[in-house]
Amino acid sequence: MQTKIVSKNFEIPHANSLEVALKNGRYTSLEKLFTYQPQEVIDIIKTSNLRGKGGGGAPAGAKWQLASDFEGKKYLVVNADESEPGTFKDRQIISKDPHLLIEGIICTCYAIGANSSYIYVRGEYEEFSDILQIAIDEAYAKNILGDEAKYPVEITIHRGAGAYICGEKSALLESLEGNRGHPRLKPKSPEPEFYFGEPTLVNNVETIASVPFIIENGAEAYTAYGTDCSSGTLLFAISGHVEKAGVYEAEFGVGMWDYIQKLGGGVKNGKKLKAVIPGGASTPILPAHLVMEAKLDYENLKSLGSALGTGGMIVLDEDVSMVKALKNLLRFYHHESCGQCTPCREGTSWVDKTLDKFINKTATLQDLEVLKSVSKSMNGQTICVFAPAASGVIDGFLKHFESEFLECIV
Ligand SMILES: Cc1cc2nc3c(=O)[nH]c(=O)nc-3n(C[C@H](O)[C@H](O)[C@H](O)COP(=O)(O)O)c2cc1C
Ligand code: SF4
Question: Ligand 2 centroid to 338 CA: how many Å?
Fold first, then answer.
């Protein structure tokens, strides 16, 4: 069931060193890359149907085109903030095969005409960031990066300071510019992001790490995996009540329950499955009966009222209290709201506090109505999708597990 494209070298000892990386196929895509014109590379990415792996699934080729269409200085920013609970895939790439990421960055910079790239790494990832820096230094020393390289690219690592919202691309750029990590208002029509006023492409680590395979093997080799709309593979992470928590790459479209059993080793201690949060903490929960029919691709999970997100599955067994689980999540959202928008700042706080009443069994029916109405007010009226995502999480718990909330009412 495992399909290894991005994770191909993960098990090779010391694959993070340049010497071992070179012996195992790293940087070979560059030979092919330079036989193409930049626009041809973008067209290959478009044909490959590569979708962003940071949670939204936006078509990568179209985003590259937006940045490429601008003349002059531009940037590539790689999003390695990875602060979403349940998501821990990008750090695998950074620590186990950092040269794959560097190779992908060179390909992407060449395609869009950038010569500078920043990697914004989650603040807590000090150890992984150090491994990545060593790999970057090695690449400079061998003229794979820098002025003497065939295509000059500079890479700079920037460590975040531990805020979840700094993973949102515009907040990330604000933070990179030295400002508070506040998301920006979205433009009315599609345009690239801007870093200090210059057009900038922001992509997730895994998106960029998927590029060398496509350049080397062609778009069709990538679309041969996955489904028609969700091509290729994803580094799905699995955690919670499973026997073998970890990160296992698989094709889009595999069955969720099949994946949990075969790769996650099944529910821990032989317990029954109660639910799965399918794609990181910000995706709506799926009760066990829907998990049985769920497929790990964008379209299927949307049709079931949830989302693929980052593909980080959190498995919950029969003993989990859904009231406590929602409280846990809302404490996180309350803490991480950047506070710019009233529905988000006040809404996450209200829900967090109201859930205490359910935990203490002092809630009334009116409190249940408060949860529902506050959640509604958080949806669709904010600068970024943080609040609508939190609203979807609340609604998911109430839709599928309302009876557990009713049991806490006096
Ligand atoms: C609250 C919030 C947190 C996010 N955190 C991350 C993150 O840690 N890593 C990431 O790649 N994308 C994250 N995103 C999505 C980014 O805004 C952006 O869509 C993504 O980096 C684009 O790359 P992709 O198209 O390759 O997925 C987050 C979005 C939101 C709203
Ligand atoms: S929705 Fe929340 S996190 Fe996003 S900008 Fe508004 S206050 Fe900040």
Answer: 5
Q: What is the pLDDT of residue 168?
A: 98
Q: Is the CB of 338 under 6 A from ligand 2?
A: yes
pLDDT at 151: 98
Cα–ligand 1 centroid distance for 309 (angstroms): 10
Q: Give the Cα separation of 153 and 32 in Å (integer).
A: 17
Does the domain formed by 233-317 have CATH 3.30.420.10?
no
Kind of pairing, strands 233-240 and 312-317?
A: parallel
Is the CB of residue 390 below 6 angstroms from any atom belonging to ligand 2? no
Cα first-last separation, the chain: 48
Residue 86 has pLDDT above 90, yes or no: yes
CATH number of 18-223: 3.40.50.11540
Output the CA 395–ligand 2 centroid distance in Å. 18
pTM of structure? 0.98
Q: Is 385 in the pocket of ligand 2 (CB under 6 A)?
A: no
Alpha-carbon distance 331 to 337, whole Å?
10
Copy the structure tokens of residue 98. Answer: 């950092």
% the chain with pLDDT above 90: 99
